[in-house]
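User: Predict the structure for this protein chain, please.
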Amino acid sequence: MLTNILYVLLAIVILGLIVTVHEFGHYLVGRLCGIGIIEFSVGFGPKLIGWEKNDIKYSIRCIPLGGYCAFVGEDETNDDPRAMNNQPVWKRFLTVLAGPFMNFVLAFVCCAIMLGNFMVAESFPVVKAITEDMPAAEAGVLPGDTIVQINDSAIENNGRGVSEIVTAIRAVEPGSIVHLIVERDGQQVPLDMATTAVTDENGVTHGMIGIEFSTRTYNFIEAIRYSGVYMVETTKTMLDTLRKLFFHGEGVEQITGTVGIIAVVSQYARDGIYEILWLIFIISLNLGIMNLLPLPALDGGRLVFLIVEAIRRKPIPPEKEGMVHGIGLALVLGLFVLLTFHDVARLIAGGVNALIQ
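Assistant: Here is the predicted structure, written as structure tokens:
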């Protein structure tokens, strides 16, 4: 029970971190642009700790599910020269854009760490480990052996060679003999063994001999380069999912709110740092994309107002814009309540697995 509570608390902290990073983007660029800031808060609800520096209030609040950055003159007319409503369009645009941008930065950093420490960049036909009581162990295969031939086919010392080995083993009926030649201490050693039938997680049965191949992760330069590629591909998938959701209603039943996200994160966090990084990557990237949607109360909606102002060369009254965003915020809060009720009902009915599936 205590362990479950700790993982739930960890999930809340992770979610709060992602949202706080978003708000810190607004804060940082706003300060650089000289926009007055009333308060920067980590968390919501009653204040736990508060202090003031350079006329800015800082606080840590009791509900660690995010935070906020309140600017002077954000949704009202204010004569203060530091007020947001008195700033050039480009400064306000950059300040609003900085929130989603920081989510993309956080996602990029997590992706680079995953690539550099966990994800396989390349595999080699070199034996890293052997499963006990499996054909390879019984036939005398040793860690460090390099497979140079299988069933009369020469094997390249790269990922393609590993694929050829796996394909050759799975191509024969379980129980059939495969012939390996391994290089050991400069000598070529022939080894024969019969494959063992193994059923994978998809219910497919195929032959295996119990070998784990050597791999390497991405180096620093590769991790940086491929993180961008990976983010672009993931973003395309997310946008396609949103398109199907909005125009075809596909996946409506799988939408979760804050409660569902916390439940899922607390479940996956048990599997270690890789799963935590993966979840931060996905949630932060998703938050950045969602906030750029041109909807009231979201950063994307504010950017639309700024673009309109730049085109017509005349500011929209802050009170009117604030009213539009206020209506949007009310709708967002209504959706939050609806999703929370939906998440709780699914948790009661089927537990966390009902949210994961």
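Residues 154 and 225 are 33 Å apart (CA to CA).
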